[in-house]
Amino acid sequence: MVTVTDPTPALTVSSHGSHATPHGHQASLKDGLAFVNTLEYDRGRVKEHLPTLDLALSWLFEHDLLHRETREDLTTRIASDPMAGERALRRIGRVRGAIRELLVASVEHRPPAARSLAEVNRALRFHYVTYLVPAPDGVSLDHRHEGDPVEGALGRLAESVARELTQGRPERLRVCENPECRWIFVDTSHSGRRKWCDMRTCGNRVKVARHRQRRREEHPVSTEVADSHS
Q1: Helices marked H in the chain — which ranges?
Q2: Which residues face 41 on adjacent strands?
Q3: Separation CA 219–CA 44 (nearest Å)
Q4: Residue whose C-alpha is closest to residue 165's, from 125, 124, 126
């Protein structure tokens, strides 16, 4: 396993806080892809959906990756230590970019960049303790996360993608072929030949662009005149 070390101090909560409470919140592949796509490309423009740590924490909470009390505790502490908040936000961005690189590399059938692999491996090292709890028919296995809650959330998001890449159906992962979108999605079509994240938007845009390009190549003069009046 490729690993890296980072001296950046983490945002943490006490082991007596709510995040130490046992829970089974595991991120789904849908969560992992939604996280990657929070950095969106729309017609060539970048849209950052997590521009602040407060919004990032809210996103993690809404996806059941942080408890409410944990989010509120972190929000309060960030207000008194903005630099720690900036470091945490940069960390979130690095992990998101690294996960995306692994997904794109899989779609392109190539090894991922070593730095991105190291970043994801570091995220996967989040700590949790497994133990038995009572169940209606006996016992069941549960776990609790310890340490930095943001790192725990990032680790579960990374794990959701890692599971799909190694144990799922990575051949069904796609990067939207609209060069102005590049949304990452799972191809659930019967044929397994879906190219665009949404046929009504990206699919139509690409087809219109290709049609115009063919017209330019076939009728360069008349097309230029028509385009000038459109």
Answers
A1: 29-36, 53-62, 68-80, 82-107, 114-123, 149-167, 204-218, 220-228
A2: 46
A3: 27
A4: 124
Q: In the numeric block, which tokens belong to residue 18? A: 């709510």
pLDDT tens track, the chain, 230 positions: 333 333 333 443 333 333 333 344 579 999 999 999 999 987 778 999 999 999 999 999 999 999 899 999 999 999 999 999 999 999 999 999 999 999 999 999 999 999 999 999 999 998 677 789 999 999 988 777 678 999 999 999 999 999 999 999 999 999 998 888 899 999 999 988 888 888 777 856 545 555 455 555 555 655 454 555 54
User: What is the C-alpha separation between 112 and 2, in angstroms, rounded?
Assistant: 12
Domains of the chain from N-terminus onward: 18-170 (1.10.3300)
Burial of 187 (0-12, 13-18, 19+ CB in 10 A): middle
Q: Single out the residue of 51, 62, 58 nearest to residue 93, CA to CA.
A: 51
How would you classify the pairing of strands 138-146 and 127-135? antiparallel
